[in-house]
Amino acid sequence: MGEFTTGILYPRKYEPKVLIALSKIDQSYFHRNVNGDWNAFFLQDEWLQTSSTVQFLLQLSKHYVPLLWFHDAEDNGWGFRLFDAGYEVSSATISYSLDVEMAEEEFGRLYPDVNLQERITDSEDVRQKYEDILDRVVRSELYRREIGKGITRIRPQSFNRITGPKQVQQLRSLFDLQLLTDVDDETGASLLYDSVDLFKEILGIEEMVWVNYAYLASGGRE
């Protein structure tokens, strides 16, 4: 099982305002120091599924408190939503499973009589056909466009209240679609799968790892 991290980060200098707001919220939460620059809080509504949770974050951000909801599910992908001045000003979702989903769909179209899940482990021919399709998928314009849908609301300049000009420029480079999806001809590797670590490094939140509300509620046992 891969990493599962989710929480809401904010610059430590806003701690008094955040603690006052959290004391009035109508749900359970945890509040932790992340490092010298960042704090984080973890709401029971981890995925911001209710309108009341989103409204809480929007309202708190109105008090000039930028809030970065960050999630990283190592096996599936990662993303964030940035709230500032009462608005959601930037967001992104990076999928790690999109290539596989598209390749499986294409395999089914080309070989409708072959059960991929059953045959891929015992047939070298099936495995090779699938890998060839997967390689074509990750190099295709359609795949690039689909990945692009997850970063259409990237606004690197929106980070200028929580980081410096250099970091804003680094974020702009990180979310360049061409660079993000370019595949190395020798290794088959893509920046896409390193993007979360680069994002965390740029913002200085490397310590935000293997932590979420459920983990903290269990006392660190889950």
If you had to describe this structure to a student in words, what would you say it looks like?
Helix content is 41%, strand content 19%. The model has no long low-confidence stretch (mean pLDDT 94). It has 222 residues and is α+β, with helices and mostly antiparallel strands. A hairpin with a 4-residue loop joins β2 and β3. Strands 2-3-1-4-5-6 form a six-stranded antiparallel β-sheet. The protein is built from ten helices and six strands; from the N terminus they run βαββαβββαααααααα. α3 packs across α5 and α7 runs antiparallel to α9. The chain starts with a strand and ends in a 5-residue tail after the last helix.
Distance between the termini: 11 Å
- Helical/strand content category: alpha+beta
Overall geometry comes to elongated
Number of strands: 6
Point out poorly predicted stretches: none
Q: How are strands sequenced across the largest beta sheet?
A: 2-3-1-4-5-6
Instruction: List the helices and strands in order.
Output: EHEEHEEEHHHHHHHH
Number of helices: 10
Kindly estimate the percentage of residues that lie in beta strands according to DSSP.
15-25%
Portion of residues within helices: 40-55%
What number is the mean pLDDT? 94
**Over the alpha carbons, how many angstroms does the gyration radius reach?**
20 Å
Characterize the largest beta sheet: strand count, sense, and whether it forms a barrel: 6 strands, antiparallel
